[in-house]
What we know:
Elements: E1 5-10, H1 13-16, E2 20-24, E3 34-37, E4 40-43, E5 56-63, E6 72-76, E7 81-86, E8 90-95, E9 97-98, E10 101-105, E11 111-115, E12 119-123, E13 128-132, E14 138-145, H2 146-158, E15 165-169, E16 179-181
Parallel strand pairs: 1-11, 1-16
Antiparallel strand pairs: 2-12, 3-4, 5-14, 6-15, 7-12, 7-14, 8-11, 8-13, 9-10
The structure holds (2S)-(carbamoylamino)(hydroxy)ethanoic acid (UGC).
Amino acid sequence: MSTPVVTIEALSAEAFAPFGWALGGERYDAAATGFSNPGSDFWHVHDFDAGAAGQPEVLWVNYRNDSLRVRLLEAHWLTQQAIVPLGGEIVQVVCPGREDDPRTPDLQRLRAFRVPNGRGVCMKPGCWHTSFVFAGQTTCLMLTRHSTTADLAAALQGGSAASESSIVELAALGEPEPLLQL
Ligand SMILES: NC(=O)N[C@@H](O)C(=O)O
């Protein structure tokens, strides 16, 4: 089974639109709700949705996987999830579910985006994903859902299946593990 190679793409709102929203940027968006003066700018970029009855949660996340090989993917079924790198960059891998089975990633449509410091992404619920760095560790601010985090942490710590998230190993699907490249 040959190893698929996936080229890491530059982040843009258009390219990321099938998976969610690209966030932020250095330039003030005068067309958005906000304000600018010589001392600061603020502007609207996204209305985060933690899902019905969801309590939005800020999570601090460190990423250290620099293998650039996609061995597993994760999806959260109730909430959007935003990731904003702080002081570094990440590579965000995203993948839609199969048309006939959203609970299984459609690996033919897997993509990877470079998310630089000062930008971010917010994924739609059900977006299969995983994250990498090029070297070292990148700390990120994450917006997610309180119950999803508690459910996922309990599952990862206890070895049980999560209810609000799914994690699949590509090998268990009989799929090759893509390698990311610039
Ligand atoms: N906490 C949590 O949900 N983490 C994962 O979704 C992830 O992408 O890191």
